[in-house]
Design a protein that fits this description.
Elements: H1 3-13, H2 26-30, E1 43-46, H3 59-69, E2 75-77, H4 86-96, E3 102-107, H5 112-129, E4 134-141, H6 151-167, E5 174-179, H7 180-184, H8 189-194, E6 198-201, H9 214-233, E7 240-245, H10 261-276, E8 282-284
Helix pairs in contact: 3-4, 4-5, 9-10
This protein binds 2-acetamido-2-deoxy-beta-D-glucopyranose (NAG) (7 copies).
């Protein structure tokens, strides 16, 4: 009996550390029996660059974030490199936390001046800290959804960042994150072509879905996005993950979607724990409530899985709902 865990551990250690879509087509995954899957996806968290009071996070603030998350994950996602000195302050924290963390770091691709500052931060801090703790670089977040750039202009920026990173001698996956429906509609094909990985964002709350329909909406939308990525890449073996999802615990309803800790918990344990069993990694948006984003009358400050004091709002353990 004692042999089984070590055999499993050895097998798991051979799997690539980067995200991939279990090598099965989206349609196979729709009806996939999770008990026969050789591995699960992992739950991870998006973290903001500012503290609850709106001040930029220091390395110590990131360390406190990571240590609060350490029982649940070993990876986080951030959004910019130069803004709030995110890269400079985050990178040392990743290896100093109570266990070793990795991160998907973000680069803001618009406008030209901002993109230049972001690349400058990469040039300064990747050679300084190395890339061992960097899982990938997302160029842009919902750029296509906001119509900030065309899919081919975003592809150019993705290639630009990959070239820059390679020029330092580093080989780091470079991709992007956008709303599931843009991927599904084929509006981002040129960006998919240019990306080493694709993140799909999906918030059934913003689709006005109630508790009866939120889980099937999430699973179906995510697999529809995956299907398009597999189609464009011409293989099922793609790096695909959920880049943002979550449910607000306060603020107003949106359509039939209400807000509460109970609904967020139900969404987490039904929808997200289920997609993990399909082998897809999730980055939950977001780790901590951010009061500076607004008041109780809007939802933005209430997306945290944890309160802003870094106490979890509900069980985050997929094998133990309460
Ligand atoms: C996925 O399948 C391809 C083709 O059969 C194979 O080369 C690759 O190693 C597989 N990847 C994983 C993660 O199983
Ligand atoms: C995947 O996670 C489930 C719990 O959600 C667990 O029962 C199962 O053993 C896990 N599978 C693997 C291969 O680790
Ligand atoms: C992590 O889990 C351990 C064991 O359950 C517990 O003692 C500790 O307080 C937890 N740490 C945090 C930061 O939640
Ligand atoms: C931390 O993890 C990364 C990859 O996840 C690895 O490359 C690095 O060597 C690890 N660092 C330490 C100190 O274990
Ligand atoms: C959720 O919405 C669906 C479709 O509108 C409806 O059939 C169902 O009764 C609703 N469930 C709840 C709990 O409101
Ligand atoms: C419930 O979710 C399914 C699957 O995403 C969708 O087809 C259906 O339109 C949704 N129902 C409502 C009332 O939105
Ligand atoms: C999650 O729950 C399982 C089952 O109760 C337990 O064995 C495990 O230690 C828990 N993990 C954490 C991080 O609390």
């Amino acid at each position: 009996m004692m042999l089984i865990p070590s055999v499993l551990t050895a097998a798991l250690a051979l799997l690539p550390s980067t995200a991939f879509a279990v090598n099965k087509s989206a349609s196979e995954l729709t009806s996939y029996n999770p008990d026969t899957l050789p591995y699960n996806g992992t739950m991870n968290f998006c973290i903001g660059a500012k503290n609850d009071n709106g001040a930029c996070k220091s390395t110590d603030d990131y360390l406190a974030d990571l240590n609060a998350l350490a029982n649940y994950t070993d990876s986080v996602r951030t959004y910019a490199t130069s803004d709030c000195n995110t890269l400079e302050n985050l990178l040392p924290a990743l290896s100093q936390a109570s266990h070793n963390f990795s991160a998907y770091i973000g680069v803001w691709p618009t406008d030209d001046a901002h993109f230049g500052q972001e690349k400058q931060a990469l040039s300064q801090f990747l050679p300084k800290y190395g890339v061992n703790n960097i899982k990938g670089i997302t160029v842009g977040s919902e750029v296509l959804y906001r119509n900030d750039l065309s899919a081919s202009a975003l592809a150019d920026r993705i290639n630009d960042v990959r070239g820059l990173v390679k020029s330092f001698g580093f080989d780091v996956p470079v991709g992007t994150a956008d709303s599931w429906n843009l991927w599904a509609a084929g509006a981002g094909d040129a960006s998919i072509q240019a990306s080493d990985f694709i993140m799909s964002n999906d918030f059934p709350y913003w689709q006005g879905q109630n508790t009866s329909n939120m889980t099937n909406t999430f699973i179906s939308d995510t697999l529809t996005a995956l299907d398009r990525v597999q189609h464009v890449k011409g293989t099922n073996n793609v790096q695909f993950l959920v880049g943002e999802t979550g449910w607000p615990t306060g603020g107003p309803s949106y359509g039939e979607a209400d807000t509460s800790n109970d609904i967020a918990k139900q969404f987490y344990h039904e929808a997200l724990c289920q997609i993990l069993k399909k082998g897809i990694d999730v980055y939950y948006f977001e780790a901590f409530d951010e009061s500076y984003k607004g008041t109780d009358s809007n939802v933005e400050p209430h997306f945290g899985a944890f309160y802003s004091n870094r106490v979890p709002k509900f069980s985050l353990n997929c094998t133990q709902a309460s």
